[in-house]
TrEMBL record:
GO terms for biological process: proteolysis. Residues 1-150 form the Ubiquitin-like protease family profile domain. This is BnaC01g30910D protein. Belongs to the peptidase C48 family. It comes from the Eukaryota. It comes from Brassica napus.
Amino acid sequence: MMWVGKYGEFKSSKPGINDVDDIYAPVNYKNEHWIAIWVVIPKKHITIWDSIHSHIKHAQLAELIEFFTIMIPYLLVELAPTDKERVKYTLEPFTYERVKAGVPVAQSGGCGNVKTIREKMATKMFEHDLCYHRDGDDADYTELDMYERQ
């Protein structure tokens, strides 16, 4: 479907957040690897897509995903607006599976680039501040730990 400037074409027919069936989210593992999860609320199931299966062992994945399997049902119960809605949910943990077929394989440099870009941007912004805003008064820069405190 092509965007033609009308929200009605893309707007969900579902009236509120309590009628959301699917949640898609990125999940970071130890600041070094990203996976994607698909939470299907009616089925109480989480599907995990990982482009590098060998990066996270089964036990590590179980530990990482346990938070989601427990917290999502809890949030559904606690955030339900009425008792009628609350009864639809239980605190039973969601099930999960890691999909191995049909997941695109990561290419070289596919993981970790965001961290590198963020570090480079922070360095560039810091250098910019030093070059263009330095007025010769070192006292302003002691809080940045550029100079040893005496």
